[in-house]
TrEMBL record:
The keyword Transferase applies. Residues 51-71 are annotated as: Disordered. Residues 230-314 form the GHMP kinase C-terminal domain. PANTHER family: BETA-RIBOFURANOSYLPHENOL 5'-PHOSPHATE SYNTHASE, HOMOSERINE/4-DIPHOSPHOCYTIDYL-2-C-METHYL-D-ERYTHRITOL KINASE. InterPro entries: GHMP_kinase_C_dom, GHMP_kinase_N_dom, RFAP_synthase, Ribosomal_Su5_D2-typ_SF, Ribsml_uS5_D2-typ_fold_subgr. Residues 51-67 have a biased composition (Basic and acidic residues). GO terms for molecular function: ATP binding; kinase activity. Residues 84-159 form the GHMP kinase N-terminal domain. The keyword Kinase applies. This is Beta-ribofuranosylaminobenzene 5'-phosphate synthase.
Length: 341
């Protein structure tokens, strides 16, 4: 692979629609269903360092590297710097870099921000230096994808994804199925800017404290995924898809409720989704640890009607943001300028 002189990577967010067996009651742990979504993303630019005269960005300097980001994304700069340092140790390439974080997914919101930031950094670094490293190699190098393979597979291909759970701590979960998400369906995101989902040590502690996952619940989750949700998506049959997603989320949400204060992390999000679920055929749930909730609806018109009616009914709290997005059936976009070689 030839080195590039500059690289821009744009990685979409994802919804984690549920684990199939987080307790390994059937012999293999986790297994995930997830969906890549359009409209929100992380965007990173990287080139070899040179002088700049920017005055409005926040800056974090590591040796001769230069890191910039808009103020709302500045908290991600230390983590980004850690990724770049890990890549330099791995590759032995120490040239000073100019790294610009243009946009970031909401952090600790259940949208895959950590994995997408790592993969953006990894792919930009690899392309800039002509290194032949794919998403799986980069994810392992940067300690991503330990439980779910949806974020890594979504970065590469997009779509509705089912993985089989990791075989070991040094292997990514295999992708068992990847289907295009129907173009006419829509996803209503319910985001709560006042709350954050569990992450890091708190997430690990919460996972360790959970009781054994019942085998019958794991079997039912697998049946829902393989015999209802995926077939309905393949046939563009919305009603059974929506019922399957809601039922999968209900079971998983109740299992994780002791760690997150209920089926939903945010009571404000729960109020909106309960209201919509009672009045619309929709796939309702929370992505990962939240607080982001979602309602998958059959069309843009159905989604806009649900939003307008919920607002008119006064169930949308002041900390919430409601956004209608599509599923995304393509992975990240990577644009690079040719190098001198």
């Amino acid at each position: 692979m030839k080195a590039a002189s500059a690289v821009t990577v744009n990685a979409p967010g994802r919804l984690h629609l549920g684990f199939l067996d987080p307790g390994a009651s059937l012999g293999r742990r986790f297994g995930s269903l997830g969906l890549v979504i359009d409209g929100i993303s992380t965007t990173l630019e990287m080139r070899l360092a040179r002088s700049h005269n920017d005055n409005n960005d926040n800056h974090v300097n590591s040796d001769d590297d230069r890191y910039t980001a808009p103020p709302y994304a500045s908290e991600e700069l230390p983590r980004l710097r850690e990724h770049i340092e890990a890549l330099k140790r791995l590759s032995g390439r120490r040239e000073p870099l100019d790294v610009r974080l243009r946009h970031v997914l909401p952090v600790h919101a259940g949208l895959g921000s950590g994995t997408q930031l790592a993969l953006c950094a990894g792919h930009a670094f690899a392309r800039l230096h002509g290194l032949d490293l794919d998403a799986a190699q980069l994810a392992l190098a940067l300690a991503r994808g330990a439980r779910s393979g949806v974020g890594v597979a979504g970065f590469e291909h997009g779509g509705l994804i089912l993985d089989g759970g990791p075989r070991s701590a040094t292997e990514l979960p295999p992708v068992l199925a990847r289907l295009p998400f129907p173009d006419e369906w829509r996803v209503l995101l319910v985001l709560d800017d006042a709350r954050s989902g569990l992450s890091g040590p708190a997430e690990r502690k919460a996972m360790a404290a959970l009781p054994p996952f019942p085998q019958d619940l794991a079997a039912h989750a697998c049946h829902l995924a393989l015999m209802q949700i995926l077939p309905a998506a393949a046939e563009h049959d919305f009603a059974p898809f929506a019922r399957g997603v809601s039922e999968l989320q209900e079971g998983i949400g109740r299992y994780f409720a002791p760690s997150q204060g209920g089926i939903y992390t945010s009571a404000a999000v729960a109020r909106v989704l309960d209201w919509i679920g009672a009045r619309h055929c929709a796939g309702i749930g929370q992505s990962s640890w939240g607080p982001t909730g979602f309602a998958i609806l059959a069309s843009h018109e159905e989604a806009t009607h649900a939003v307008a009616a919920a607002r008119a009914a006064g169930v949308v709290g002041p900390t919430l943001r409601l956004e209608i997005v599509k599923g995304r059936n393509a992975g990240a976009t990577i644009i690079h300028a040719p190098g001198d070689a």
